[in-house]
Amino acid sequence: MNGTVKFFHDQKNYGFIETDEMDDDVFFHKEDQEDGFSVEEGAEVEFDQEEGDRGPKAVNVSTA
C-alpha cells in the first residue's frame, strides 16, 4: 500500500500515514519501519497493513 506521512512525533516514535485507499489515517511506530529509514512528514512511503489493537496498523514502512 502507498501513502504519505501525515504526522510523526519524534520523541514518542509514532505517526500516521494518509492513504487514498482508506478514510482513516494508518498508525505506525518507528519499530515498524525498515532499518535506516528516516521518517519525515510529507514523505511518500510504502507499507504493509495489519490489524492492530486499535485498528489498522502500518508495518514494513519504507520510502516509496
Question: Would you write up a description of this structure?
Answer:
The structure is a single chain. This protein has one domain: Nucleic acid-binding proteins (OB fold (Dihydrolipoamide Acetyltransferase, E2P)). It has a 5-stranded antiparallel β-sheet with strand order 3-2-1-4-5, with no helix packed on it. It contains no helices and 5 strands. It has 64 residues and is mainly beta.
TL;DR of this structure?
The chain is mainly beta. Helix content is 0%, strand content 55%.
CATH fold descriptor: OB fold (Dihydrolipoamide Acetyltransferase, E2P)
In quaternary terms, these chains amount to: single chain
CATH class call: Mainly Beta
* Structural class estimated from helices and strands: mainly beta
Q: Helical residue percent?
A: under 10%
Give the beta-strand count.
Answer: 5
Give me the side-by-side strand order of the main sheet.
Answer: 3-2-1-4-5
N-to-C terminal Cα separation, in Å? Answer: 10 Å
Estimate the strand proportion: over 45%
User: Number of DSSP helices?
Assistant: 0
Backbone shape: globular
Q: What low-confidence regions span 5 or more consecutive residues with pLDDT below 50?
A: none
The total domain count is 1
Question: What characterizes the major β-sheet?
Answer: 5 strands, antiparallel
**Strand-and-helix sequence, N→C?**
EEEEE
